[in-house]
Design goal:
Elements: H1 5-13, H2 18-26, H3 33-41, H4 43-50, E1 53-59, H5 84-97, E2 104-110, H6 118-135, E3 138-145, H7 152-158, E4 163-169, H8 174-180, H9 190-200, E5 205-212, H10 220-229, E6 239-244, H11 267-282, E7 302-305, E8 310-312, E9 326-327, E10 331-332, H12 347-350, H13 355-358, H14 363-370, H15 380-396
Parallel strand pairs: 1-2, 1-7, 2-3, 3-4, 4-5, 5-6
Antiparallel strand pairs: 7-8, 8-9, 9-10
Amino acid sequence: MEIDKSLLADIGDGSISAEERDTLIELGFLVERAAERREMSGFMDEMNLLNTRLRAIVVMNLDCNLACRYCFEGARKGPYFMTRDTADGVIAFIKSKAITGIQALDLTFYGGEPLLTVDLVEYIADALRLYADDRGLEFGFSFITNGTLMSADTVRRLLPLGMTGAAVTLDGPPAVHDSLRPFKSGAGSFDLIVKNLGEVCDMVGLAVGGNYTKESYKFLPELLDLMIERGLTPGRISAVKFDPVSIETPEIAPPDFHEGCASLNEDWIAEAGISLREEILKRGFGTQRIKPVTCMIEFSNAMVINYDGSIYKCPGLISRREFCVGDILSGVQDYHISHAIDNWKNKECLDCAYLPLCFGGCRYLKFVRDGNMEGVDCRKQYFDATLEAFVKQDIKYGLTG
């Protein structure tokens, strides 16, 4: 919103006219702090009341055909696969959750590598698609996948069942990516992934994600150029977003990897975030816009169903039994205390201009860093360092509409 400097001065010294003040309050540009605190305190409660979409991340297995050096599942990985009986339980559980008020079923198949069990994915998707069709519900599913098994033939099999997209990881140009994400045999995975993306990017929505360290993020612009050279252009890739690799607790973390970050407040992450977002946008790719960000733990209709039928509220917490909130047979138990629900409802957070952009930050990262979820994962330092640059990028590249 553009206003005269004189009006801004009047706002600052309190001499604004009553008419102008009422208009700016009505438009949401001026707020009364106590009213704003009340509104923010009830924000997530209102979102849960209005939410009619059931979102489930379904972990098909904890196995993988890659041997990523930094894999946050670490020691949790192994030959652990969902059985047909558990798949039937998952289907029944999701149907039971969809009885009241739900208008859409949104599944994300996850692993390990979910496409190692593509037949069971088809079984679950087909059953829930038919259920949704019978009841007039919206239905769709996507994947978080390493992309090595996402061939055109596989996508063609899945599209009639409701596949809407996939998020695939590329960590840099071939030498960087292959050093971080090789096959178990030691062979590189980059060329096969890019080949598969080129075959399916016009068939289904694809997002490219990447994980970086303090050293590797500088190579990601080279990846973007290589994607364009190989035909993975902005018109064929729906979004690109890169994130820093985070630490893990010692009993789970890969023993030979020590390059993860403990907090977004580390200085180099702000530099990397601004730089990489600029590189993505200037090449014409879409990326995450500035908007309210809330942890899935806060949403009552969002959950992670593990391969064994146990239920969690965050992918980072799977197989940590102290954070299991139920299972597909007994349902979801109360998790307000164990997961520090409403941890951001304190004076400092409610007075913070960045609250809608973090809502207390990441509970998973708070836990792996501090050993508990008490308090918040405050990101004020990060937003102090980045938000002005992000806003200017949105204006520069026309993302403000």
